[in-house]
From TrEMBL:
Naturally occurring in which organism (per UniProt): Papilio machaon
UniProt-annotated location(s): Endoplasmic reticulum membrane
Role this protein plays: Stabilizer subunit of the dolichol-phosphate mannose (DPM) synthase complex; tethers catalytic subunit to the ER.
The family this protein is said to belong to: Belongs to the DPM3 family.
Cited InterPro entries: DPM3
Record-annotated membrane-spanning stretches: 7-26, 38-62
GO cellular component: dolichol-phosphate-mannose synthase complex; endoplasmic reticulum membrane
Name assigned to this protein: Dolichol-phosphate mannosyltransferase subunit 3
Its membrane topology: Multi-pass membrane protein
Entry's Gene Ontology molecular function annotations: glycosyltransferase activity
C-alpha cells in the first residue's frame, strides 16, 4: 500500500466517523453536549497536522548532516571531469 493510499483511507475513515456524528446517526448525550467541538474538529486537525509538519521539517533541517569528505570527493571529481573535457578539446 502506498503512502497516498494510506492517507486517503485514513482520511476517508475519519470523515465517515465525523459525518456520522454530525448527521445524527449516532445518539449519545456526550455527543450532543459537545456538538460545537465536533463541528470544528476538522479545522483543529488541519491546524495540528500543520504544526506537526512544521516541526518535522524544522527537526530534519536542524539535524541535517554535513558530509565534508563527500564534498571534497565531489570537488575532485569535478576537477577531473574538467581536465578530461579540456584534454578532449572542449574549452570555456
Amino acid at each position: 500500500m502506498t503512502k497516498l493510499l494510506e492517507w486517503i483511507s485514513v482520511t476517508s475513515a475519519a470523515f465517515a466517523v465525523w459525518y456520522s456524528l454530525i448527521g445524527g446517526y449516532v445518539k449519545h448525550p456526550f455527543i450532543e453536549q459537545n456538538m460545537n467541538l465536533i463541528i470544528i474538529s476538522p479545522i483543529i486537525f488541519v491546524i495540528l497536522f500543520g504544526l506537526y509538519a512544521v516541526t518535522v521539517v524544522l527537526f530534519r533541517v536542524f539535524t541535517f548532516n554535513n558530509c565534508e569528505d563527500a564534498a571534497k570527493e565531489l570537488q575532485a571529481e569535478i576537477l577531473e571531469a574538467k581536465k578530461d573535457l579540456h584534454d578532449r578539446g572542449l574549452r570555456w
